[in-house]
Write a structure and sequence with these properties.
single chain; mainly alpha; Arc Repressor Mutant, subunit A; 5 helices
Amino acid sequence: MTYEKSMLLEVIGDSPENRVIDFLMEGKGIDYSITDIAEGCEVSRPTIYKILPKLIKKGVVKTTRKIGRITLYRLDEQNEKVKALLTLEGILLKESFQQVEGKHSVAVPHQL
């Protein structure tokens, strides 16, 4: 799997923390294990173990449940920082679609 940098990461910067946030934003509403997050972000599991407590403390990520020994996490969409990032992502997507539409529009000659 090759990690493809999102438009959001191009704006906010590509760091392991931002990759985790970006990954969870893409799958908002879904619970992920540390392994899922590590594979989805192409960040090592030990790095994820260091990052998650910081993101939980900031309120960006929350623990959702445990299944046996596995803890699941998801983006905390009620957090103001997360709301701002989701808004920014929406703006970037809208701009991207407008650029694509502009490239595909066909100029119709004006007839008199």
